[in-house]
Amino acid sequence: MAAQSYDRLEGVIWYDGKVLPWNDANLHVLSHGLHYGSCVFEGERAYGGQIFKNKEHAERLKRSANLLDFDIPYSVAEIMAAKQTVVEKNGRKEAYVRPVAWRGSEMMGVSAQSNTIHLAIASWEWPSYFDPEQRLKGIRLDLAEYRRPDPKTAPSTAKAAGLYMICTISKHRAERRGYADAMMLDWQGRVAECTGANIFFTKDGKIHTPTADCFLDGITRQTVIALAKKRGIEVIERRIMPDELTGFAECFITGSAAEVTAVAEIADWRFTPAAITKQLMDDYTAEVQPKAAAA
Questions:
Q1: By CB neighbour count within 10 A (0-12 exposed, 13-18 middle, 19+ buried), where does 169 fall?
Q2: DSSP string across 141-167
Q3: How far is Cα 278 from Cα 294, in angstroms, rounded to an integer?
Q4: pLDDT beyond 90 at 228
Q5: Domain 132-288 belongs to what topology?
Q6: DSSP assignment letter at 77
Q7: Percentages helix, strand, coil for the chain, rounded to the nearest 5?
Q8: CA angle in degrees (0–180, nearest 5) for 228-229-230
Q9: Which of 192, 238, 252, 197 is CA-nearest to residue 220?
Q10: Going by C-beta distance under 8 Å and a sequence separation of 6 or more, which residues neighbour residue 127?
Q11: What 3-state class would DSSP assign to 32?
Q12: 137-146 in b/e burial notation, b at 16+ Cβ within 10 A?
């Protein structure tokens, strides 16, 4: 049976300062964000009713908007509070949280400096992005045809809707070929990321991950790097070429949706999920749980 359409879920959505019934949170078909990609968003998770890294996500949302030359008319604190309100009112303690901001419909054309900036926040139940049984066993990745663009050609450090166009195309192609996702290279042919997650490799007890200068330096990525260093595991951020993949032992990906997920295969390269991946999966699970208030 097909899942219920996202425009027909039950609950509320925070929209421009008001809490609306889910079905009433709509925008006009001539909104600039739809036609010209002037739209930014976040992907977050609530655990036990508390949004993990709530402030960091709100700050990044504001930065992403600024990179697209608009300002969200709410402070970081106001955005944080609105997100928490949505989670509480929707009554799902384990939830995915999606803030999204976009230019409205006052002007239709490339230039739209006077358009109203809208902000909406929704939350819904969304289990692990990948099959839970495959998360430790390891998912299979295709090699994407599209590449992450030169940062001189796009605002690559923003979480902007338009940057995901090639991700959707690449993930669809991968799924049609029997893979769970795809790994993307950058414009110079170096390993970059997956379509919605950062990627890591292990060799000789050390972790190697691509330098995040033409794709999003994910908040989950930053969290996992900190957890690895806390364990005394060296993390090396550097340029990685595809022909190096043969020499890596483990591979895993990170993201708010993916959390920490093992990878067993990327095209013709094979990996064996083992101790480091399992340890970081466990550490991340422990990290995201709400901390008990001090007595």
A1: middle
A2: EEEPSS-BPPTTTS-TTS-BGGGGHHH
A3: 30
A4: yes
A5: D-amino Acid Aminotransferase; Chain A, domain 2 (3.20.10)
A6: H
A7: 30, 30, 40
A8: 90
A9: 197
A10: none
A11: helix
A12: ebbbbbbbee
Q: Does residue 3 register a pLDDT over 80?
A: no
Is the pLDDT at 200 greater than 90? The verdict is yes
- Structure token pair of residue 90: 């929707």
Q: Note the CATH number of domain 6-124.
A: 3.30.470.10
Instruction: List pLDDT tens digits, range 48-71.
Output: 999 999 999 999 999 999 999 999
84-85-86 Cα angle (round to 5): 90
Distance (Å, rounded) from C-alpha 103 to C-alpha 118? 6
Amino acid at 181: D
pLDDT on residue 293: 46
- Determine contact, residues 48/289, Cβ cutoff 8 Å: yes
134, two tokens: 């495959």
pTM score over 0.90: yes
Report the DSSP beta bridge partners of residue 266.
141, 269
Average pLDDT over the chain reads: 95
The domain ranges of the chain are: 6-124, 132-288
Q: What token pair was written down for 198?
A: 């950062």
Q: Quick one: tokens of 44? A: 């977050």
What is d(CA 3, CA 90) in angstroms, rounded to the nearest whole number? 19
Angle at 251 between CA 258 and CA 146, to 5 degrees: 70
Q: What is the residue whose two structure tokens read 């060296």?
A: 234
Token pair listed for 56: 């960091």
Let me know if 244 is exposed, middle or buried by CB neighbors in 10 A (0-12, 13-18, 19+). middle
The backbone torsions φ and ψ at residue 235, rounded to the nearest 5 degrees and listed phi first, read: -115, 120
Catalytic residue set: 159
CA angle in degrees (0–180, nearest 5) for 108-109-115: 55
CB-based contact 33:102 (threshold 8 Å): yes
